């Protein structure tokens, strides 16, 4: 790894914490009803036990025309500050349905310029190759 200039305070406090990021061999498609919001063969799977694994999709494979940025944000001591977008075709259910770490801590640089979606707000379909 390159020299760490923006270290995650969570890993400094809890060096035994394990978060893995691996490429997903297949296609991940995100839909709101019948509307495709994202489709990618370049998605990454982030695993952070005890939480369920999450797909991170490159921004280039997300249709931002179907999203609207929101003022909502959250902070993770391992990943950084998350920005949120609402999925417009999902209506009220789609509020803050996608998040991204646009400036993640160095240890999570692999998810920069990738978005993740709440499975409770949209349909996420993963088809392995």
Question: What structural category do the secondary elements indicate?
Answer: mainly beta
Q: Compute the gyration radius: what is it? A: 15 Å
Major sheet details? 7 strands, antiparallel
Q: SSE order in H/E notation?
A: HEEEEEEEEEE
Overall body shape: globular
The fraction of residues assigned to DSSP E strands is: 35-45%
Helix content range of the residues, please?
under 10%
Count of DSSP E strands? 10
Largest beta sheet: strand ordering:
1-4-5-9-8-7-6
| N-end to C-end Cα span | 29 Å
Average of per-residue pLDDT values: 96
Can you count the helices? Answer: 1
Reconstruct the topology from this structure.
Layout: H1 9-13, E1 20-23, E2 26-32, E3 35-40, E4 44-47, E5 54-58, E6 67-76, E7 80-87, E8 98-100, E9 114-117, E10 123-128
């Amino acid at each position: 790894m390159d020299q760490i200039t923006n270290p995650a305070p969570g890993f400094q406090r809890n060096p035994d914490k394990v978060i893995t990021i691996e490429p997903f061999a297949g296609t991940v498609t995100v839909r709101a009803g019948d509307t495709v919001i994202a489709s990618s063969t370049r998605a990454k799977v982030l695993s952070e036990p005890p939480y369920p694994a999450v797909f991170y999709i490159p921004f280039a494979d997300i249709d931002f025309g179907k999203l609207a940025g929101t003022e909502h944000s959250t902070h993770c001591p391992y990943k950084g500050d998350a920005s949120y977008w609402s999925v417009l075709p999902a209506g009220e259910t789609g509020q803050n349905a996608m998040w991204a770490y646009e400036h993640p801590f160095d240890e999570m640089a692999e998810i920069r310029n990738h978005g993740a979606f709440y499975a409770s707000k949209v349909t996420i379909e993963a088809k392995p190759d």
